[in-house]
Amino acid sequence: MSSIQVKGFKRNGVSRLAYTALKRKAASWTPEEAKDRVIDARRPHCPFCDSVAEIKTSQEFYGKDYDCCVWYCPKCTDVYVGTQKGSNKALGKMANKETRKFRKITHEELDYKFKNGSLKKNDLYTWISDKLDLSTEDAHIGNFSIDECKEIIKVARKEQFDLIYGHLFGR
């Protein structure tokens, strides 16, 4: 697990009070100060050209402040990944427009599994890892390729069909 360092400050093992104070201070940093002070040794790489990603604040990237950053490829157009709010930790793997589209569809397809209460979110990751033979750490949709998205959609639709209509076919 990576730790965020800010001028010698490590979040891991630091009191909640100290971290909260740092976040308040960080809110007043300019985008350049934030980039200079936040260091993460595990910078993403572009899956298309293998360039090391660069980071911008959401204000710089989208033109609106979402209290997060975006890792983007300086060479490829439209290859990026967002970060967790108030952090520079990527939410998944960098993706182009088509991959992001499939990830969104996959989220929509699987929402019924935990939004209707049949599975908790952590159980959903376990279900995905079982169906795709992945570790639970890799079973997050933000890490999926287009082929993995298609596969889990296919599995989820078949399972939903069997659940609804299986009795008609003796399943």
- Quaternary organization: single chain
Helix content: 40-55%
Q: What's the tally of helices?
A: 6
For the sheet with most strands, the description reads: 3 strands, antiparallel
Structure write-up:
The protein is mainly α and 171 residues long. It is 44% helix and 10% strand. The protein is built from six helices and six strands. The protein has helices spanning 16-27, 31-37, 58-62, 97-115, 121-132, 146-165; strands at residues 5-6, 9-10, 38-39, 54-57, 69-72, 80-82. The strands form two sheets. Strands 2-1-3 form a three-stranded antiparallel beta sheet. The protein has a three-stranded antiparallel beta sheet with strand order 4-5-6. Strand 1 and strand 2 form a beta hairpin. Helix 4 (97-115) packs parallel to helix 6. 16% of the residues are buried. The model is unreliable at 1-19 (pLDDT under 50).
